[in-house]
Amino acid sequence: MKFNPVIEHLKTYEPGKPIELVVREFGIDPKDIVKLASNENPKGCSPKAAKVVADAASLMYRYPDDSMMELKAALCQRFGISEKEIIIGAGSDQIIEFLCHAKLYGGAKILQSEVTFAMYQIYAAACGASVIKAPGLAHDLDAMYKLYKEHEPEIIFICAPNNPTGDCLDLKDIENFIEKIDENTLVVVDGAYQEYASYKDPNKAINPADLINKFSNTIYLGTFSKAYGLGGMRVGYGIASEHIIKSLYKLRPPFNVTTLSLIAAVESLKDSEFVEESIKECFEQMNSYIEFAQKFGIKVIESYTNFITYILDGINDSTFIADALLRQGIIVRNLKGYGLNAIRITIGKENENQRFFNAMQELLKTGK
Amino acid sequence: MKFNPVIEHLKTYEPGKPIELVVREFGIDPKDIVKLASNENPKGCSPKAAKVVADAASLMYRYPDDSMMELKAALCQRFGISEKEIIIGAGSDQIIEFLCHAKLYGGAKILQSEVTFAMYQIYAAACGASVIKAPGLAHDLDAMYKLYKEHEPEIIFICAPNNPTGDCLDLKDIENFIEKIDENTLVVVDGAYQEYASYKDPNKAINPADLINKFSNTIYLGTFSKAYGLGGMRVGYGIASEHIIKSLYKLRPPFNVTTLSLIAAVESLKDSEFVEESIKECFEQMNSYIEFAQKFGIKVIESYTNFITYILDGINDSTFIADALLRQGIIVRNLKGYGLNAIRITIGKENENQRFFNAMQELLKTGK
């Protein structure tokens, strides 16, 4: 059977190995597995949200409220925007999918930084678009501007903070960049880790309402998967001018967020104490990762997220390290697929981090 | 901002009005609302599944097992197929989306019956395809074959049982039809309501493994949204030959089914007693709908699903009836948008059905 030739060459996203797979492959007891691969919140989710969802479990038979009235109202209040300026997706991933389908057709192009969230190029490729990459570990906005002038891409992706490196552009630099971009090019500012960045450094903090009021060609993406601890429930959102949201809405499948996900997100949004605690503890624990790296001469990228990236050049091979850790039940993300000899480690709970340090220390000492 | 011209003319799916909306519009107490509009299971979901999900609520922070190992294994065992012959989606809707993206490009066409599940043409239109419709209330396979020869569509949709009419083709007729279709045309057999049809009449029962072994160009769709009572959790599946599944997989976004949805589906699949009871009670209650229709001279279509369609020609206007019921807190589906003067009513619990009969009787007596 013949299929759209576009899909022939598609690569699939390689997610962090789930605990189930490690259990199966290495026969390790699930309770001995430390998963530091998918930037999940190590504190879990808001206990209040878990309680409300548990109480609502028997509602699973009801289709979700497709207007998402309650969650939208809560997000609009939070961000000071109108209901016409927001769209909710099955993770912010799905918003990326919508906007690729909306903007990319007939020989289209996207522009992104070389090392950034993998799904941009995966969704773009599924639309048959080509991907222009500005070289470098961090977003090089000057290089991106040159490439924008040269290639005239339909979409420009800015990931702030950037995944999988952890660094973050200053808001003023992002704004200076977008100012130079024409009205018909969609600029995506992916703020999946913004809660962490804005806590650590006000220069990195993005106010989505301000951003879209200044730039009518810009969409801000947020998610409940990280600081809010709902990675498993697939809830994210896009905030943009009404004309963009209206077009994306046409591509939204009905019931794209589950009944329990909506309930979980509404409740999690109320529990700001849990989010603040999560972020505070994350940066406290991150200090041990920085100290460990200094002790062993590992280069780290300053992180504004809930993960840290260890560059292993001159130290060891990232595939060797990631695999060796995996055999001990410690799951980290090998960044070899991004062209880096590096591993990305989610900041876990203290005991989980200690497991990582102990195992890593042993590997670095023996060199194998 | 310019968008893909394809999306300019897209219509959005009109789902059954959620209870939240009726509460808001008419100020009716939620407990007084009877929702018979979305073919949800009036018994709810499996209490065992609800229990397991409630106990697992604190796992919402973990990304789903993206291999969906456990659910796939359970479905493979249930259907006697291999893991390479199944793909799991956020509802069977999402499988329809995948296969439209996989097959429809560059002036493509789909073929379907005139009155059938609305999402086929919505997803096809989003891919820029045109929609060929065989006229008639029921699937007219002879007419469909003629249109197939004339238009050479990329995809043919067969909905068995058909939504929103409730009738169902015999398996042998479906097979005789597919036998005449060339290898490169994808035939979709949507079995969203198959659990009901196969209970009522073995001639309607489809065995997905047999179907795909006979026809390598055919995909069978199933769902947990109806008999399994998990409409809110968005879990469906496609069963087809490996070469089809492999192509669809390339279009699957990672983590397309939530952590709690996977748990719910696995557990629901075990609770066959709940499903059987649901179906039995559905057909028991359906008898009252048939009797009521006979009493008032309303034409019904014989239903092999958990809903029934009342044709109101010569009786009243379906928009008037649906709106009048809505104002009393009784939500049914007006089929005017499908070109029918008819309403589709989900078979509810006895007291819910009684509410419908009382209100309907009053409307039919007064004629307004």
TrEMBL record, chains A, B:
BP GO annotations: L-histidine biosynthetic process
N6-(pyridoxal phosphate)lysine modified-residue sites: 226
EC number per UniProt: 2.6.1.9
Pathway: Amino-acid biosynthesis; L-histidine biosynthesis; L-histidine from 5-phospho-alpha-D-ribose 1-diphosphate: step 7/9
Annotated InterPro entries: Aminotrans_II_pyridoxalP_BS, Aminotransferase_I/II_large, HisP_aminotrans, HistidinolP_aminotransfase, PyrdxlP-dep_Trfase, PyrdxlP-dep_Trfase_major, PyrdxlP-dep_Trfase_small
SUPFAM superfamilies, A to Z: PLP-dependent transferases
Alphabetized UniProt keyword annotations: Amino-acid biosynthesis, Aminotransferase, Histidine biosynthesis, Pyridoxal phosphate, Transferase
Domain Aminotransferase class I/classII large span(s) in chain numbering: 31-358
Cofactor: pyridoxal 5'-phosphate
GO MF term set: histidinol-phosphate transaminase activity; pyridoxal phosphate binding
Keyword Amino-acid biosynthesis: yes
Residues that span the membrane, as ranges: none
Catalytic activity as recorded in UniProt: L-histidinol phosphate + 2-oxoglutarate = 3-(imidazol-4-yl)-2-oxopropyl phosphate + L-glutamate
Enzyme class at the top of the EC tree: transferase
NCBIfam families tied to this protein: hisC
Family: Belongs to the class-II pyridoxal-phosphate-dependent aminotransferase family. Histidinol-phosphate aminotransferase subfamily.
Subunit structure, as described in the record: Homodimer.
PANTHER family: HISTIDINOL-PHOSPHATE AMINOTRANSFERASE (PTHR43643:SF3), HISTIDINOL-PHOSPHATE AMINOTRANSFERASE 2 (PTHR43643)
The name this protein goes by in its record: Histidinol-phosphate aminotransferase
Native source species: Hydrogenimonas thermophila
